[in-house]
Amino acid sequence: MRIVLVGPPGAGKGTQAQYLAKNLSIPHISTGDLFRANISQGTLLGKKAQEYMNAGQLVPDEVTIAMAEDRLSQADTEQGFLLDGFPRNLAQAKALDRFLADRNLALDAVLDLEVPEDEVVKRIAGRRICRNDSSHVFHVTYSPPKQEGVCDICGGELYQRDDDHEDTVRKRLEVYHNETEPIIDYYKAQNLVVTISALGKVDEVTQRAMDALQRAKAA
């Protein structure tokens, strides 16, 4: 299957993308991974992206699109893929459609993870991350550490990232509403959107998503 995953910050896209890609035996392609790979490998696109990032500017669509198209041209995507974080606006969505159409391909589904805005704020603003290892993540409500402010795993200090503060989260949501949400309507016009609730346990959301994708494939 060829799938685009969309949803607001804090919807759990990264987590669900990993599980879904594994269950469907297709590569998970995230924008973050694309940037990191191109920058670490010193590609021309990576160098261009780094220049913009060093200047505190957004990487232009044409650079992001070129990275995505390069990745989608690799052999492991022949049986499908799951895109996470791309496309993030209408220009990128239309570029993806053109890329696929040129190869007589098309998307099978756009999976929209739906989460109430207040829940998004609660999820992100409650996150606490270990200074010693950023993979050690806790939550003041859902998975609190045994001792406040201390990582259960290594004893490191837990802190709240600057972009996890409530006012910043709401600004990120505003950007999502303005830039990314329009692609949902764009794909709805193509009858591709499958919307599911992203509330509940991770495995419950994954099963919900798998069921919805299977229904979309059968249709």
Can you characterise this structure?
By secondary structure, the chain is an alpha/beta fold. It has a single domain (2-218), classed as Rossmann fold, CATH 3.40.50.300. It has helices at 13-24, 31-41, 44-54, 61-72, 90-101, 117-125, 166-188, 202-218; strands at 2-6, 28-30, 81-84, 109-114, 127-130, 137-139, 158-159, 193-197. A 5-stranded parallel β-sheet has the order 2-3-1-4-8, with helices on both faces. Helix 1 packs across helix 8 (202-218) and helix 2 (31-41) packs across helix 3 (44-54).
Summarize this structure as a short list of keywords or feature phrases.
Adenyl_kin_sub, three-stranded antiparallel β-sheet, 219 residues, kinase, alpha/beta, cytoplasm, Rossmann fold, five-stranded parallel β-sheet
